[in-house]
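Continuing from yesterday's entry. The apo prediction looked reasonable, so today I'm repeating it with fe (ii) ion included to see how the binding region is handled. Same sequence as before; SMILES copied from the compound registry.
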Amino acid sequence: MTTYTDKGEKHEKGKFLCFDHLTFWVGNAKQAASFYCNKLGFEPVAYQGLETGRRDVVSHVVKQGKILYVFSSALNPGNKEMGEHLIKHGDGVKDVAFTVEDCDYLVQKARERGALVVREPYTMEDTQGQVKLAVLQTYGDTTHTLVERTAYNGLFLPGFKPPLHKDPLLATLPSGKLDFIDHVVGNQGDDEMVPVVEWYQRNLLFHRFWSVDDKQLQTEFSALRSIVVANYEETVKMPINEPATGKRKSQIQEYVEYYGGAGVQHIAMNTSDIITAIVNLKQRGMEFMCVPDTYYEQLRENLKHSKVKITEDLDVLQNLKILVDFDDNGYLLQIFTKPVQDRPTVFLEVIQRHNHQGFGAGNFKSLFEAIEADQNARGNLTILTPNGVSKIA
Ligand SMILES: [Fe+2]
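Holo prediction written out below.
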């Protein structure tokens, strides 16, 4: 595991401030938004569709703390772009938007350095003010929207109206306790990690923040490599993964095959109270990955030799299957959901940090073994043979 101190070059003007919102392209935006509200504690915050004068694409925006997710679907037959995206990827994250200062300058710099500008800076406006946006192409079919919202007081973006319907059930459910997006992870195909990391370094002036290699991230069966890139202020963190050769198909390879290429693998949401969050989310019916009790036996043993003191009750953490990673200075608590659609692609993480800026490398082995058990149940923990032909294990 490596942490980096060199933040590299800083933009002369403008900056990336934080994650703004994530846009999912899905088959049925209304139902997807309802799942995130019911299972994860989000609330409807804005809407755009036929009733607001938008004729081609419907978008339901949900919010929790500072986290904003947009679920969009095509309204008409024959929407080639959204239709082909759905055929190829299934439901997934189309766009990861950043709140920025000086959208024009950041886009100009990215273009000069070789980034593909999908949409040049443009201004959206309604009675609540103006927002400037632009879109850059990143890995796979994923894009980054840059959002400069210095002069806007509306619900979300110009053109969005209040939700048509507020589900009365939501007010009766316990809080999800999720505060902000901690990191967004992108899975890449074989040998694609470093070129993608370099894209962020070159075009957005992000820097390497943390990394792990496949020696540290392997189970008996599969392995992966990961490099985290961050903006100068380290408020936006994007781990980039690639599969490494193992005895069987890596979970990253499984993702890439089902997503049809590179894409967002998981979104980690930060909480200041993971125990209450997970009690509540489980009560709401959210499904999480499960590690065996032997994980906690090993953890208790390892903690005996550590300087760090976990303030939470380990029995409670074990009962909820929350994972712990630590070093001498601090620790993090984390848990992962099962995939949130039928394809084994996107899943979610809930994370609480106590003076620890890692990503849970100490948990990867236990977590991967749990993921591999599910992967095996899906018939995808296949044996890799030297000529690349795989067969069912
Ligand atoms: Fe994560």
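Comparison notes:
- The chain has a mean pLDDT of 93.
- Residues 183, 185, 266, 268, 349, 359 surround fe (ii) ion (CB under 6 Å).
Will overlay with the apo model tomorrow.
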